Amino acid sequence: MKLLQTGDLHLGKSLHETSLVEDQKVFLDQLDSILEKGAYAALIIAGDIYDRTVPPAEAVELFSDFLVSMRRKHPDTELFMVPGNHDSAQRLSYADGILGTQGIHIVCNPEKSFEPIITAKGSERLAVFLLPFLSPGSLGTVPTEPVSAAEKQPDRKDGMFEFDFSHEETEPVEPTKPAAQRLLSSQADLAAEAARRFDAVLDSPEYRTLPSLLVAHLFTLAGVQSESERIFLGTSEKVSPALFSKFSYTALGHLHKCQKITDRMYYAGSPLAYAFDEAGTEKCFLEIEIDCLDPAFPVSVRKIPVQPLRPLSRLEGTFEEFYQGTAYAPYSSHYLEITLTDSELIANPMNLLKPKFPYLLSLKQGLYETGPASTRDSGSTGAADALFDEKRDPVTDFIRFEEELYGTADSDRVELFRELLSECADEA
């Protein structure tokens, strides 16, 4: 069975305040063309369909047009997708019941992730599991370790000797009290609970001999990040790939670089470079082939390169080399980040170079990039400057972070954050 994998479309995203809608239409058209040529059983989109929980109208229209075109041109190709951490699961789940009858499958409620969808192609059958991005509490609670009165009895061993206390009168053992419940909050804990439930299904007689596919949006321990992703602190948000080893193949989203995690687990990465640290990196779709008739369910993976509307490049040189020279002329149609290496500060270089490089989005003067200003583009004005010059309110920033991550700010966490700030101020 042949499948096509992508993810992290981030429809509606801009790059340095430049709209990428046309660029995104180009890779969706390429996706459509590949589907037309390949006789694929299914298309997989592993989360982050949109860049924001409330996407712009043009992004919604773009994806809607793609779905209509796909159903018209490829009626036998099913679509499996999950919401990522940038998406609104509630919005994506709109009319999911009707869409499911049209071969467009989306699971937004994690509790439904453990009910596989069976897809078939000829004599081949595949069980598909869809796991959306797991937010705190999305899989409920689990019991903490219960402690009974029996566990509180004194140790019956003293060194090498074991004593018989059977003749002693002891207090009757109390029954085990109901276990306290613990909310699952970290990605690691949530993924472990999901894996436990998946294993129970996969070990059942109904699915034990059937190949299985997992589509998930998460960050594995072995994954390589890029600047365009939301970075989590610590390792509690990273997931062990071993948790999902029972699946015949796992299609992952969240990390933007195409990468192999195991022989049966891959990130397709984003179809576009969304940050300049991705300049020059390979962007692709993945063709997955699973032999569903072989008891070992062997898997092969092939990369299909994406041809961007405009490549993304990082360049370095003197101002005169860019302004007067011709060596960089081939980059005039690229999205550019330029770092000037001049020993003297150049006045207003962005405006001077824009006529020659119309897609110049970021310009830095390397020798003068010190301290907080190192991330500020030379020659930039307006909102970008204000971002660095204004006095930032930590509470406002925390609320924005909560809204970006979860769609809304939790009032209890905001209040706790206020209290922590107040305590830090008192200690200072």
Task: Describe the overall structure.
With 428 residues, the protein is α/β, with parallel strands linked by helices. It has 3 domains: 2-137 and 184-305, Purple Acid Phosphatase, chain A, domain 2, CATH 3.60.21; 312-389, no CATH class; 394-427, no CATH class. Helix content is 25%, strand content 22%. The strands form 6 sheets. It has a 6-stranded mixed β-sheet with strand order 6-5-4-1-17-18. Strands 7-8-13-14-16-15 form a 6-stranded mixed β-sheet, with no helix packed on it. Strand 4 (42-45), helix 2 (57-73) and strand 5 (78-81) form a beta-alpha-beta unit. Helix 1 (21-38) packs parallel to helix 2. The longest helix is centred in the N-terminal third of the chain and has 18 residues, at 21-38. The N and C termini lie far apart (63 Å). Mean pLDDT is 84; it is low at 147-168 and 370-390.
Highlighted features:
single chain, 428 residues, alpha/beta, Purple Acid Phosphatase, chain A, domain 2, 6-stranded mixed β-sheet, 22% strand
